[in-house]
Structure to design on (220 residues):
């Protein structure tokens, strides 16, 4: 089997310089071009999160509940990079997937401090860096999480480009646009880039997802 392709930011910057006629690096520094790359990567990342793309569904973790304890700190359970949930479930009975609810729903379980309002959790809410379970656990349950982690920019040009290099051409176009218009306040560029990345993301997800076909009955 062939090895996975890797492309560094430095390699992409070399391509930019050919396009920008700046092979000697007189007009744009590597740091400036790297910042444009990171701007593009963050915009792509947000589009993929909003689209529930499996490309960035890379966060996972587990923790055990404590009887009578409602909230659990993500960072304390090795999930400090938690950004947005995909699926949270408890292996008991099935397993059972927990349903996301509003924070206000917790007050229905806090009428009094007795154990009548405790049980196996089947709902959860998010509040800052914590996750709350409802009903309040009455024992030890393992909670499993699959989530979208927060975006991490490239810290150096030696870093590899993410997203399996599926957006490299679009990133190259975006950097060219930003570099050529760096002295202009042009909000139209961001709109154009959003459309460029959205179209590419939609095409990629269509190829990597199961296609649902709908048949229509024929009537005589």
């Amino acid at each position: 089997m062939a090895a996975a392709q890797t492309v560094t930011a430095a390699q992409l910057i070399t391509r930019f310089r050919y396009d920008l006629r700046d092979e000697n690096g007189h007009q744009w520094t590597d740091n400036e071009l790297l910042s444009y790359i990171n701007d593009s990567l963050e915009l792509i990342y947000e589009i993929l999160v909003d689209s529930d793309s499996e490309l960035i569904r890379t966060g996972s973790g587990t923790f055990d509940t404590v009887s009578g304890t409602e909230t659990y700190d993500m960072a304390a359970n090795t999930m400090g990079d938690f950004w947005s949930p995909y699926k949270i479930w408890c292996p008991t009975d099935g397993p059972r997937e927990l349903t996301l609810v509003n924070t206000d729903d917790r007050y229905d379980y806090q009428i009094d401090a007795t154990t009548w309002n405790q049980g196996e959790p089947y709902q959860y809410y998010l509040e800052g860096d914590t996750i709350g379970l409802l009903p309040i656990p009455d024992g030890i349950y393992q909670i499993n999480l699959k989530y979208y982690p927060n975006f991490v920019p490239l810290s150096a040009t030696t870093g590899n480009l993410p997203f399996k290099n599926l957006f490299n051409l679009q990133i190259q176009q975006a950097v060219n646009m930003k570099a050529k218009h760096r002295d202009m306040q042009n909000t139209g560029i961001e709109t154009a880039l959003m459309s460029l990345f959205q179209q590419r993301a939609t095409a990629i997800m269509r190829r990597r997802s199961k296609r649902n076909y709908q048949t229509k009955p024929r009537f005589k």
Q: What stands out?
A: Residues 193 and 199 are 10 Å apart (CA to CA). The longest helix spans residues 187-208. The longest strand covers residues 82-90. The mean pLDDT is 87.
